[in-house]
Design goal:
Layout (H helix, E strand, L loop, with lengths): L1 E5 L2 E5 L7 H33 L15
């Protein structure tokens, strides 16, 4: 792979996907996982706010109780 900087332009020559398919698949998986986790976070924030507005106690999932 050869990268060329020419003033404000950036060119990449000799880039093939076969040599980088592992890196690209890990990157795509990370982006999809990040999107799913953000969607779940958004849903849980809305759910917790609805519970709090009804006066109910909401226990956050996947938390460790350090102080009892």
């Amino acid at each position: 792979m050869e990268a060329i900087f020419n003033n404000d332009d950036f060119y990449i020559r000799n880039f093939n996907f076969q040599g980088n398919i592992g890196l690209l698949s890990i990157g795509a998986t990370a982006v999809v996982l990040f999107g799913v986790l953000k969607f779940v976070e958004f849903f849980l924030v809305i759910y917790a706010s609805i519970k709090a507005s009804n006066g109910e106690l909401y226990k956050y999932p996947l938390t460790i109780n350090f102080i009892k």
